[in-house]
Write a structure and sequence with these properties.
Number of strands: 4
Strand content: 5-15%
Oligomer: single chain
Radius of gyration: 20 Å
Low-confidence stretches: 162-182
Distance between the termini: 78 Å
Number of helices: 5
Structural class: alpha/beta
Number of domains: 1
Order of helices and strands: HHHHEHEEE
Strand order of the largest sheet: 2-3-1-4
Shape: globular
Length: 182
Amino acid sequence: MTDVITALQDDFKLFLQALWEQLDLPSPTRAQYSIADYLQNGPKRLQIQAFRGVGKSWITGAFVLWTLFKDPEKKIMIISASKERADNMSIFLQKLIIETPWLKHLRPKSDDSRWSRISFDVLCSPHQAPSVKSVGITGQLTGSRADLMILDDIEVPGWQSVRIVPSFGPQDIPRNSPSMKD
């Protein structure tokens, strides 16, 4: 059994295949294995773009669980266009931790641990930040801590309402502005 656990910890594709079997899903497709390989071995900052329905969110959720399976001390933030979508991912992950026999060891032993749809802890040492936190893109990110940030479906119609305000210096003020003197 230890060899199986080690193999699952070492290879996200094997973890994904085992999780898909647990969920009674067909074996991952070549495209899904490619996404899994890229998540595990790609650059530190990466973006996944694939056609609708390939399972990007499900695979990324599995990646969150794999990250915690390897190191329960990791802190992960899930950010989505809507708070509801981020919360749904968090609920999905909690359900998998509860119902998957080989993930049950991640469930905290104490009733004092965080375990809500907004944030939850796995079995880890006490920390200010939760193991997993879900946030909407317009939500409160300030002060949050994370080793891994998952941005899931953040670009949706109307997303332009979220603006990044750059800082401006005097050189950026238009010439016809009353504050500019010749």
